[in-house]
Structures are given as structure tokens and as C-alpha cells.
Amino acid sequence: MLKAERFFTHPFGIILSAGSAAFLWGSAFPAIKLSYSLLDIQPNESSEMLLFAGYRFILAALLIFIFLGFTRKQLQLQKADIKPLAKIGLFQTFIQYVLFYIGLSYSSGVQGSIIAGTTTFFQILFAHFLYDNDKLSMRKGWGLLLGFSGVIVVNVSKGNLAIDFGIGEVLLLVAMASGGYGNILARNASRHMEVGYITSYEMVFGAIGLILVAMPGVGLFPFSFSLEAAGLLLYLSFLSAAGYILWNNVMKYNQVGKISVYLFLMPVFGVFLSLVFLNEKVSTYVFFGLLLVTIGIVIVNREKKSESPHIGMS
User: Residue 9: CB partners within 8 Å, gap ≥ 6?
Assistant: First the structure.
């Protein structure tokens, strides 16, 4: 325990852990788009998308269970915890990823990466209405304004200044709102439940919902996985599990305000990994929009001085 605390409080440990978590979450966008291509999942094939998401989170939960087993943390589900964990799973995994996977199929990896940065802003808005001691301030308001302005700017088409904000972008925004509310629920639950226990079981409940919704349309095993597609599925599961483990540990031993600023790296990594692996073409508006979102995230997170640990994007 002492060695873990020493590592996660050391400047190098903080940068490595928080930066790695942001990199893993950012890499999900091109990985999902590549998986769609390899499995021939088309934008109108929502059942296939949701089933694939269900596979991912069942495997991610299994990886966390294995980790908890090695660390001898609580594994057995308590009856009294089923309802709150199912509610977290509803918003943080089921609703968020129903909308996210479908929305991303209609949007680019770059746009999805930048819109994902708005989770922080939605979380702050929810906190304003749910907590008396976490109201919006002028500084937070400016951060929110800059962030949402960035989302609009990144969707300005090159050349004609038309706003290209379609169904994909709308679904992604609502998905981020659902994820932000799920984070609030998880934060409340973490007061009396271990965070790894919360995350693993909410993933299980959410994944079961995704699979049950998808099965009537495509069955349980419609895919023909190549080695590359299977590797991407395993990687997506790993990044959800590993991202949580790294982020939760660095949050555990440090002030939340000191660490949350690293969230701005997630859309940055997502954009540039999408450029590299998806060969997506972008205009200068994308980089300007990314800058606005990044500045907004930095502003709203710098003001956070004390807060209970919350779970990052899974």
C-alpha cells in the first residue's frame, strides 16, 4: 500500500497514470470505428453495434473482477446494492453507449473525440442542481461556454461555414449527458461502496441490457471475428478496465482538482489517434474547436478544490 501511494503521489506517477488513462479513453474512438469496418457494421445496423458494446463491457467487467480477486477486494454482489448499481449501469453504460455507439457510426472519430470532452461540462451542470455546495460560478460558466462553443466550431464544414451538426452529433451529446449523470450517481454510491465494486457490476448490468436489446435483431453470435477484430474487442475491454484502475488509483491518493485537469488530454488523444489510424481529413476549424474545448475543461477543473472521487469514462 505504501509503495502504491508513493508512486501515485509522485509527479512522474501522476503524469504517467492520469495521462495513460486519458490516452486509453481517447484511443477508444478510432478503435470502435475500426471495429465497425472489420465487422462490416453499417450505420443503420444498431443491433450489431449494441451487441458489440455488450461484448466489450462484459469482458471489461471480467477483467476488473480478475483484478479485484488478486487484490482481495469485495466481489460478491450484495442484495441491497442491486438497485443503485443497476441505476448507475442504466445511465453510465446502457443509455450512454446505446447513444454513443450509434452516434459514432454517423460521425467521425475526430468529432466523437471532441464531443466526448463535454462529459465534464454536463457533470458540472448536474452538480449545480443536485448539490448545494457545488453551484455554477462565473469561472465555471465561462468554461462551459468555451467548451460548448468548441463543439459547435468543430462541426463547421470547411469552406462554406455551414454547421454540419447531424443526428450523430446530437446522439453523442446526449450520450455524454447520460455519462455525466452516471458519474454523479457513481460518486454518490462511492461514499458507501468500493469504486471497483461499483464499476464492475454497473458494467455487468449495463452490458446485459445492451445484449438483451440487441439479441432480437441479430441473435447472440452474429459476428465472424478475424484475429484483428477480436484483438480490437479485447483492447476496448482492456482500456475500459485499465483506464478505470489507473484513474481511480491516482484519484485516491491526490486532490481531485489537481488530477481532473488531465481529462483535457482525452479529446486531444482521441483527435490525433483518429487522424493517424482512420486517416480522417480535418479543417482548421477542428483544431480551433479542440482548443476551445481543452481551455474550457482546464478552466472548470482548476476550480475544483475538494470533491469525492468519481469514476471516469468507461
Answer: 253, 254
Rg (CA), the chain: 19
Q: Long-range contacts of range 276-280, CB-CB < 8 Å, 24 or more positions apart?
A: 276/30, 277/30, 277/34, 277/109, 278/30, 278/33, 278/34, 278/108, 278/109, 280/108, 280/109, 280/110
Would you place residue 169 in the very low, low, confident or very high pLDDT band (cuts 50, 70, 90)? confident
Helix pair angle (138-154, 284-302), 10° resolution = 160
Q: 130-164, pLDDT tens digit by residue?
A: 877 777 778 778 877 887 787 777 666 544 444 56
Burial 172-186 (b: 16+ CB within 10 A, else e): bbbbbbbbbbbbbbb
Residues 83-110 have a mean pLDDT of 89
Query: DSSP label at 261?
Result: G
What's the average model confidence in pLDDT over 38-63? 93
Mean pLDDT rounded to a whole number for the chain: 82
Please name the residues in contact with 51: beta carbons below 8 A apart, sequence gap of 6 or more: 210, 211, 214, 215, 218, 220, 222, 223
Q: Which residues pair with 163 in a beta bridge?
A: 156
Cα 8 to Cα 13: distance, rounded to the nearest angstrom: 5
Cα(269)–Cα(273) distance, integer angstroms: 6
> By percentage, how much of the chain surpasses pLDDT 90?
32
Name which of 11-25, 204-218, 283-297 the model is least confident about: 283-297
Q: Cβ-count burial of 256 within 10 angstroms (0-12 exposed, 13-18 middle, 19+ buried)?
A: middle
E strands, 183-248, in order: none
Q: In this structure, are residues 109 and 35 in contact, taking their beta carbons and an 8 Å threshold?
A: no
Q: Are 198 and 188 in contact (CB under 8 A)?
A: no
* SS3 label, residue 130: helix
Q: Are 310 and 187 in contact (CB under 8 A)?
A: yes
Q: What is the pTM of this model?
A: 0.80
Residue 26 CA to residue 28 CA, distance in Å, equals 5
Give the largest Cα separation in the chain, rounded.
58
